Amino acid sequence: MSEFDGLPSVRWSLRGLTEEGDEAWLIRGIARKRYHCPGCHGDVEIGDEHTVVQYVRRLGGSDHHHWHRRCAEEILVPELGRLRRVPAGDSSQTKLERRGRYPSGRRRR
Ligand SMILES: [Zn+2]
Fold this sequence. Notes:
Number of helices: 2
Helix content: 10-25%
Bound molecules: zinc ion
Number of domains: 1
Low-confidence stretches: none
Radius of gyration: 13 Å
Mean pLDDT: 92
Strand order of the largest sheet: 6-5-2-1-7
Protein backbone atom coordinates (compact mmCIF):
# COMPACT_ATOMS: atom_id res chain seq x y z
CA MET A 1 0.00 0.00 0.00
CA SER A 2 0.95 3.64 -0.25
CA GLU A 3 1.76 6.22 2.39
CA PHE A 4 -1.70 5.74 3.88
CA ASP A 5 -2.35 3.18 6.54
CA GLY A 6 -5.96 3.00 5.39
CA LEU A 7 -7.30 4.10 8.72
CA PRO A 8 -9.11 7.38 9.14
CA SER A 9 -8.53 9.25 12.39
CA VAL A 10 -10.13 12.06 14.35
CA ARG A 11 -8.27 14.61 12.22
CA TRP A 12 -8.12 12.91 8.85
CA SER A 13 -10.50 11.09 6.59
CA LEU A 14 -9.62 9.34 3.35
CA ARG A 15 -11.18 9.84 -0.04
CA GLY A 16 -10.86 7.55 -3.02
CA LEU A 17 -12.66 6.54 -6.19
CA THR A 18 -14.36 3.24 -6.88
CA GLU A 19 -14.04 1.48 -10.22
CA GLU A 20 -17.49 2.84 -11.08
CA GLY A 21 -16.27 6.38 -10.52
CA ASP A 22 -18.13 6.96 -7.27
CA GLU A 23 -16.37 8.78 -4.46
CA ALA A 24 -15.78 6.72 -1.34
CA TRP A 25 -15.10 8.71 1.82
CA LEU A 26 -13.69 6.82 4.79
CA ILE A 27 -14.44 8.49 8.08
CA ARG A 28 -13.65 7.46 11.62
CA GLY A 29 -16.76 6.81 13.67
CA ILE A 30 -17.92 5.47 17.01
CA ALA A 31 -20.85 3.08 16.74
CA ARG A 32 -23.97 4.37 18.44
CA LYS A 33 -25.81 1.16 17.68
CA ARG A 34 -24.92 -2.25 16.36
CA TYR A 35 -24.06 -2.31 12.67
CA HIS A 36 -23.50 -5.00 10.10
CA CYS A 37 -20.07 -4.92 8.48
CA PRO A 38 -20.30 -5.51 4.71
CA GLY A 39 -16.73 -6.82 4.68
CA CYS A 40 -17.04 -9.83 6.98
CA HIS A 41 -20.79 -9.85 7.67
CA GLY A 42 -20.04 -9.63 11.36
CA ASP A 43 -21.31 -7.07 13.85
CA VAL A 44 -19.79 -3.71 14.66
CA GLU A 45 -20.62 -3.43 18.35
CA ILE A 46 -21.91 -0.34 20.13
CA GLY A 47 -19.02 1.88 21.15
CA ASP A 48 -16.60 0.39 18.63
CA GLU A 49 -14.28 2.70 16.79
CA HIS A 50 -14.95 1.81 13.18
CA THR A 51 -14.88 3.19 9.64
CA VAL A 52 -17.92 4.86 8.11
CA VAL A 53 -17.77 4.54 4.34
CA GLN A 54 -19.86 7.18 2.66
CA TYR A 55 -20.32 6.90 -1.05
CA VAL A 56 -21.09 9.98 -3.11
CA ARG A 57 -22.35 8.55 -6.36
CA ARG A 58 -21.12 9.72 -9.73
CA LEU A 59 -24.67 10.28 -10.94
CA GLY A 60 -25.74 11.88 -7.67
CA GLY A 61 -26.95 10.52 -4.37
CA SER A 62 -25.07 9.28 -1.34
CA ASP A 63 -25.26 6.34 1.03
CA HIS A 64 -23.09 4.96 3.78
CA HIS A 65 -22.06 1.75 5.46
CA HIS A 66 -20.31 0.86 8.70
CA TRP A 67 -17.18 -1.27 8.44
CA HIS A 68 -14.74 -2.73 10.93
CA ARG A 69 -11.55 -0.74 10.62
CA ARG A 70 -9.53 -3.76 9.64
CA CYS A 71 -12.09 -4.96 7.10
CA ALA A 72 -12.15 -1.54 5.43
CA GLU A 73 -8.37 -1.43 5.36
CA GLU A 74 -7.92 -4.94 3.99
CA ILE A 75 -10.91 -5.30 1.67
CA LEU A 76 -12.09 -1.88 0.60
CA VAL A 77 -9.04 0.37 0.50
CA PRO A 78 -7.07 -1.82 -1.97
CA GLU A 79 -9.92 -1.44 -4.49
CA LEU A 80 -9.94 2.35 -4.39
CA GLY A 81 -8.05 4.57 -6.77
CA ARG A 82 -6.59 8.01 -6.19
CA LEU A 83 -6.75 7.64 -2.45
CA ARG A 84 -5.88 10.76 -0.54
CA ARG A 85 -6.11 12.13 2.93
CA VAL A 86 -8.59 14.92 3.59
CA PRO A 87 -9.30 16.93 6.75
CA ALA A 88 -12.03 15.23 8.75
CA GLY A 89 -13.97 18.51 8.84
CA ASP A 90 -14.51 18.30 5.09
CA SER A 91 -16.18 14.93 5.34
CA SER A 92 -19.11 15.42 7.66
CA GLN A 93 -22.17 13.45 6.67
CA THR A 94 -24.14 16.62 6.06
CA LYS A 95 -21.52 17.98 3.68
CA LEU A 96 -21.29 14.73 1.78
CA GLU A 97 -25.02 14.38 1.42
CA ARG A 98 -25.14 17.91 0.07
CA ARG A 99 -22.32 17.02 -2.31
CA GLY A 100 -24.36 14.06 -3.52
CA ARG A 101 -27.15 16.32 -4.73
CA TYR A 102 -25.13 17.05 -7.84
CA PRO A 103 -23.72 14.65 -10.40
CA SER A 104 -19.94 14.55 -10.30
CA GLY A 105 -19.45 16.90 -13.26
CA ARG A 106 -21.14 19.72 -11.41
CA ARG A 107 -19.33 19.40 -8.11
CA ARG A 108 -16.66 21.60 -6.74
CA ARG A 109 -13.35 19.76 -6.51
ZN1 LIG B 1 -15.89 -6.70 9.32
